Write a sequence for this structure.
């Protein structure tokens, strides 16, 4: 029986892991945290899942409030899987201490936000291996349907060919993610803790959301590959820049009327400068990759967080766009380098085969070449992907081991992001 321990849930992702119930997972969950608004928000979300009209959950929480919440959790050890989603400043240390105490860990990204943290993470994985424990991070974007299909097509030599090597000026893979500080979660405005705007606690843009993008590149270009990250990754360039937030915007997002003292170092003429944006170009096994993340305060009406992805193959480019033209919904395109009758025939045959795995998908001509028509049933939303990650992790726990490539992906990913940060210049 898997029994969850929720540790200081300062981020709403901790609750999303519990949006549904799971087989072989105890309904009793022990929560350890200091008293305050973050804990209250977490408990409110869990209660909303327990009391919703359709398919309510039945979580039974046992809550410990106190400043010694870490030691209490480690001493009591009332479960076997720690859920970590909150302030990232000490997250890697908490991961290491949980493993030292004999606990498995399911952690929100990022697992490490700087080179020092990465070195601790390496040691935590070594300890986990020695004691048959599983560390895993929450990579929800692998379950988004356009990312799934882009990966499938990238491995199809008839449609995509093989990945180009690219160059510094024209990388073979480009991924850009646009996010927003103010948005809605589970139907309600998201109230962020003030520390979320302090990059010393949350992490800079280059080491935060970029973890999803770096993971997707490893997963789609080199599936199930065990990397030698110190030799397979080379950072070519990296830069970072800030998003300005007025006090009114900060108040709207946090419900606080003033900036706390720890944010005053980032104030410029009364405006908060959040170092949340970044861009890196690197090579992974010789393939040139460009990754970027951008944060705005609030999305235009009718839109939300967006994702852009380009993969350059020897036969076609695979493109995901999510702009105004796509009504802010991700659309996957195939752009053949040579639009011949023979290629079109092969394309139709292969999409027909792929539709056996994903019933309902189809092709239609577009300005980009071809658009993949994806039935609405596959667009389940970001929040539903947390359950998919949890199911995968629980399946690994039942087997008693993590695939070697999963461990390699995590170490390679955080080596990449933290190395990029250490080399980044201000834009």
């Amino acid at each position: 029986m898997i029994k969850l321990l929720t540790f200081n849930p300062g981020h709403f992702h901790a609750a999303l892991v519990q949006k549904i119930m799971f087989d072989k997972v105890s309904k009793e969950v022990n929560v350890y945290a200091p008293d305050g608004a973050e804990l209250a928000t977490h408990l409110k979300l869990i209660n909303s899942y327990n009391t919703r009209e359709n398919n309510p959950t039945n979580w039974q929480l046992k809550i410990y409030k106190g400043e010694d919440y870490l030691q209490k959790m480690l001493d009591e050890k009332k479960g076997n899987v720690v859920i970590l989603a909150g302030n990232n400043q000490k997250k890697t240390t908490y991961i290491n201490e949980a493993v030292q105490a004999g606990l498995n860990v399911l952690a929100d990204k990022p697992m490490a936000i700087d080179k020092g943290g990465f070195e601790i993470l390496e040691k935590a994985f070594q300890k986990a291996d020695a004691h048959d424990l599983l560390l895993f991070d929450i990579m929800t974007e692998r379950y988004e349907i356009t990312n799934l299909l882009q990966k499938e097509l990238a491995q199809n030599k008839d449609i995509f060919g093989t990945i180009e090597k690219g160059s510094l000026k024209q990388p073979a893979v480009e991924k850009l993610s646009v996010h927003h500080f103010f948005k809605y979660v589970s139907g309600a405005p998201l109230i962020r803790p003030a520390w979320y705007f302090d990059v010393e606690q949350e992490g800079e843009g280059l080491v935060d959301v970029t973890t999803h993008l770096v993971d997707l590149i490893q997963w789609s270009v080199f599936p199930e590959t065990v990397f030698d990250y110190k030799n397979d990754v080379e950072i070519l360039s990296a830069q970072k820049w800030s998003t300005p937030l007025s006090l009114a915007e900060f108040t709207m997002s946090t419900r606080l009327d003033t900036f706390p003292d720890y944010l005053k170092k980032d104030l410029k003429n009364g405006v908060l400068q959040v170092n949340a944006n970044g861009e890196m170009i690197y090579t992974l096994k010789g393939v040139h990759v460009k990754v970027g993340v951008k944060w705005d305060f609030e999305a235009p009406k009718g839109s939300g967080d967006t994702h852009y992805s380009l993969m350059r193959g020897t036969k076609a480019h695979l493109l995901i766009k999510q702009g105004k033209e796509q009504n802010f919904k991700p659309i996957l395109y195939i752009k053949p380098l040579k639009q011949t009758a023979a290629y079109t025939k092969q394309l139709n045959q292969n999409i027909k085969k792929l539709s056996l795995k994903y019933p309902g998908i189809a092709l239609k001509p577009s300005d980009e070449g071809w658009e993949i028509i994806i039935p609405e049933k596959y667009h389940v939303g970001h929040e539903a992907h947390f359950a998919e990650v949890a199911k995968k992790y629980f399946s690994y726990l039942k087997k008693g081991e993590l695939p070697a490539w999963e461990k390699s992906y995590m170490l390679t990913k955080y080596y990449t992001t933290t190395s990029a940060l250490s080399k980044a210049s201000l834009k």
Summary: The first strand starts at residue 4 and ends at 7. The chain is about 35% helix and 25% strand.
